Amino acid sequence: MSSFLGHTLAAITIHSIAKPYNSKPHLRVWLGWLVLIACAPDIDYIIPIFHPSSHQGMRITHSIFSSLLLPLFTIGILLLVGVRGQTLKTSSLQVILAGLSHPVMDLLVGVTPLPLLYPWNLQMFKLPFGILPSAGRIKLNNYLFYKNLFIEMGVIAPLFFFVFIKSKGYEVLEKQKIILMVMLFLSAYFMLWAFNLSR
Fold first, then answer.
1. For residue range 57-87, what is the model confidence (pLDDT) as tens digits?
2. What's the pTM value of the predicted model, to 2 decimals?
3. Is 39 in contact with 189 (CB distance < 8 Å)?
4. Structural domain boundaries of the chain?
5. Can you list the alpha helix ranges (DSSP code H) found in 81-142?
6. pLDDT tens readout for residues 136-185
7. Is residue 199 within 8 Å of 110, Cβ to Cβ?
C-alpha cells in the first residue's frame, strides 16, 4: 500500500491542475476535501467493520465502487447547492480522480491484491510488478518506513511536479525543459529502485 504522504501528494497535484473556486478559503477547504477523498479507502485500518479480517482478507474499501462513493456524494451535494457549469465539471473531475487515485497507486505497489470490482465480482487484482514501494510500518525506529517513504517520494514528487508544470501551459524555456527532463529521469530512477525491491 502507498503511504498517506503519497496519497496526499496525489490529491494536491489533482487540485493544482485546475482550481474551480476563486476565494482562498474555498480553495483550502476544497483541497482538504480532495486529500480526505484520496486517503479515505485506508479507513479500513481504523474502523473494524471495514477491516480485511471482516471480509475474508479483502480490502473492500479499495474497490472502484467504494473509492467513488465519496466523490459521487460530493457531486450530489454540489448539485444540491446550485453549483453548475464549468465549476461543476472541474470539481466533479477532481473528486473522481482523487477517489480513483488511491486504488491506482496501491495497485502500482504490486504487493496486496485488491478487489477492484467488489461488490459485483470478488476477483482480486494485483500487478506482477511494482513501481512504488509499500508503506512501511509507521514506527520511529523502523528503517524500512523511512527508506520506502524516500523511494515513494522519489517516484511521485518529480512526476507530479512535471504534471503540474505541463498542465499550467507555461511557456517552457530551454533551461526549464532540461529541468523537466531531469525530473522524469529522477522519477524513472526511483521507479527502477522500487521495481527491484523484494515483494
1. 999 999 999 999 999 999 999 999 999 999 9
2. 0.91
3. no
4. 4-195
5. 85-107
6. 676 777 788 899 999 999 999 998 888 877 776 666 566 677 888 889 99
7. yes
